[in-house]
């Protein structure tokens, strides 16, 4: 008899696996509707929709395995990471959809969020003020105009499945829409900078690495408190707090990043 596996769960949505079926439960009907629609538009493989009865979306399991997870081991070969880069490029080259995604928030809104979160991180004692200030200076590199692309919006490596050097599918399109392509690349390589060259081998040229690093800092600063309040650990080795330290010269990537 198949067991029920909780893949991820928090106050906004949850994903369960029962045998070869994933059940995604989302309290936001509009977001779930948009996910189903956008999955039908993307030029990359996605899970088969078995049925959709809001608030539940049933998806077929994908072959292969996720590339890994933030703070944990990775399973993909260099060729697998390059294939993922090529798939991301295909997505970004597709006609952008009408919906603005998470990667398309305005500079003004991002600056407001960064001000608010930075202040709360310090006030709540989660991060020291000096680290937040240094990371903020890095993050501000993402504040610039960008050409709109079709973006995933939450392109963690756990959402990309590969089998050898082939991408078998990309999951979790709830944050997809128009946005900054470099936000996706930064999300995908967050905490796994050592694979950035492999990803870019598949993705191609035209990538401003300073902006990718800025998005690493911005995404990490905005995520730390939410993660800590929802049962995740941004302080685990290789996760968001380590990324902030690396970017501000306190961690193992500092020398390489300064030469990039």
TrEMBL record:
Domain of life: Bacteria
Pfam families: APH
Domain Aminoglycoside phosphotransferase: 40-210
Descriptive protein name: Phosphotransferase
Organism: Kitasatospora saccharophila
Taxonomic classification: Bacteria, Bacillati, Actinomycetota, Actinomycetes, Kitasatosporales
């Amino acid at each position: 008899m198949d067991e029920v596996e909780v893949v991820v769960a928090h106050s906004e949505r949850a994903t369960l696996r029962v045998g070869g079926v994933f059940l995604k439960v989302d309290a936001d009907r509009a977001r779930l509707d948009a996910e189903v629609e956008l999955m039908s538009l993307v030029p990359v493989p996605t899970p088969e929709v078995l049925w959709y009865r809001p608030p539940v979306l049933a998806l077929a399991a994908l072959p292969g395995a996720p590339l890994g997870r933030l703070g944990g081991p990775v399973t993909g070969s260099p060729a697998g990471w390059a294939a993922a880069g090529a798939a991301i490029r295909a997505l970004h080259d597709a006609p952008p959809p009408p919906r603005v995604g998470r990667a398309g928030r305005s500079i003004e809104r991002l600056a407001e969020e960064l001000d608010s979160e930075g202040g709360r991180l310090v006030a709540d004692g989660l991060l020291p003020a000096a680290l937040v200030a240094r990371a903020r200076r890095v993050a501000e590199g993402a504040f610039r105009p960008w050409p709109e692309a079709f973006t995933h919006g939450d392109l963690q490596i756990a959402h990309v499945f590969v089998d050898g050097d082939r991408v078998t599918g990309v999951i979790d399109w709830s944050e997809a829409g128009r946005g900054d392509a470099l936000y996706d690349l930064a999300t995908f390589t967050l905490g796994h900078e050592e694979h950035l060259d492999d990803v870019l081998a598949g993705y191609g040229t035209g990538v401003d690495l300073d902006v990718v690093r800025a998005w690493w800092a911005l995404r990490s600063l905005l995520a730390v408190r939410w993660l800590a309040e929802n049962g995740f650990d941004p302080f685990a080795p290789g996760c968001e707090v380590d990324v902030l330290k690396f970017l501000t010269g306190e961690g193992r990537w500092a020398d390489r990043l300064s030469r990039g």
